[in-house]
Amino acid sequence: MKVIPIILSGGSGTRLWPLSRENYPKQYINLLGGYSMLQETILRLNGLINKIEPIIVCNHKHRFIVAEQLNEIQLVNSTIILEPSGRNTAAAITAAAIHVLRMKIKDAILLVLSADHNILDKQSFHESIEIAVQQAQHPKLVVFGVTPTHPNTGYGYLKIKSDSGKDFLPVDEFVEKPSRIVAEKYIQDDHYFWNSGMFVFEPEFFINELSIYSKDIVRAIQASYNNSNKDLDFIRLEKKSFESSPDISIDYALMEKSKNVVMVPLNAEWSDVGSWKVLSEIEKKDSDGNVIKGDVVSIETKNTYINAQHKLIATIGLKDLIIVDTPDATLIANRNNLDAVKNIVAKLKNEKRIESGSHRKVYRPWGWYDTIEIGDFFQVKKLYVKPGAKLSLQLHHKRAEHWVVVKGTATVINNDNKYTLDEGESTYISLGAKHSLENMTTSPLEVIEVQSGTYLGEDDIVRFEDIYDRIKK
């Protein structure tokens, strides 16, 4: 058998705002040290028997982030399927299963994982996967159930039909997130497990089962895949058909209805990193119960999570708080009221605040830019251009730009002129001029860009040539 990991990486992570934002959500952030959560999800599969390179399903806006993060961990042959919009897990998994069937990969078993889980016991995780792979061949739809350690109200639960202690158990019922009182009852009952949201099954059996219970999803996603486009190294699903699929989770669409679902117990120190409260619970704490990340001075502060990656944060006499600082937004919340974080994001979005979805530092396929200062008719940015990378040949109708090279060597196209700039040298790009910036060296290029004009939005870009295929057709 060939085990093909399907990594679902399309979430927006609003409950971890302001660190996680729509345009750069939690799965691409280094939350726990070492690698991003997407990278950790892939790397913890190293050593798994019969595993081949994964298929990543993500939002089209994140395609270059995903490609870069795969490249950082030396994965060059992975498939990246792009969703034109979010339609929940049923549509995403169906797209991956259809792709595997079209590729005619013999004896394929799909291992469906979320990109935002934390699993500490890799060996135990692999052992559970191997049991699940065996069960999936019967065929069955296999879900991993996590033995509860406390009455968690943020997870869904699985109720099994037997507590015989076998390696796999028939699932009797999928249970919604419970109240505190109900969760406390579940923790005392050996028939209840946390629903991990991770699955194993044969792709053909999955599609056949889904066609019985949710044929509209199969029909829509098949049409979307049939009309998909190959975009560089990506498979871009067709938008209209994709969005005609019901917006529903795989639990609702199939798992709760199928009579062929079994559960494999998972005891691998698993957690779904979906909120600041969960993250604060799994991080290492000091003697006062605080999680301290970054430059922090605290006095008489207890049971508080402080993330100060950008400047000093000093606290006095605080208790039970979450404090997260970013360059353009700071969250201060009671750890018992964190469900309201998503309401903050909704309010910011309703007010059309850029902080709802974007960071001050914005990543692009060529590198990133950091907006240092904004005024009424000017904007200052720092550009970081990776070795060998190039910004598109473009023009702006409403702004001019002044570039100063502070590190490296830039190759510039300015209308009909092409020239290089070394450190300390500058150039002026007049309004309406066709221009491009390229790093033809093997070292990073850093440029300070001063924009001036009546409108400074990112939509005032007309592209003529782009090596990343971002020109609208």
Could you characterize what this model shows?
With 473 residues, this protein is of the alpha+beta class. The chain has three domains: 2-272, Spore Coat Polysaccharide Biosynthesis Protein SpsA, Chain A (Alpha-Beta Complex), CATH 3.90.550.10; 285-350, no CATH class; 361-465, Jelly Rolls. Helices cover 22% and strands 35% of the residues. It has helices at 37-43, 63-72, 88-103, 122-136, 180-186, 203-213, 215-226, 239-243, 250-255, 276-282, 341-350, and strands at residues 2-9, 55-59, 79-83, 108-114, 117-119, 141-146, 157-160, 169-175, 192-201, 229-231, 234-236, 261-266, 270-272, 291-299, 305-316, 321-325, 330-334, 361-364, 367-374, 378-385, 393-395, 399-407, 410-414, 417-421, 426-429, 435-438, 445-453, 462-465. Strands 18-19-20-27-22-25 form a six-stranded antiparallel beta sheet, with no helix packed on it. Helix 1 links the parallel strand 1 (2-9) and strand 2 (55-59). Helix 3 crosses helix 6. The protein starts with a strand and ends in an 8-residue tail after the last strand. The mean pLDDT is 94.
Describe the structure in brief:
The chain is built from 11 helices and 28 strands. The chain is of the alpha+beta class. The two termini are 41 Å apart.
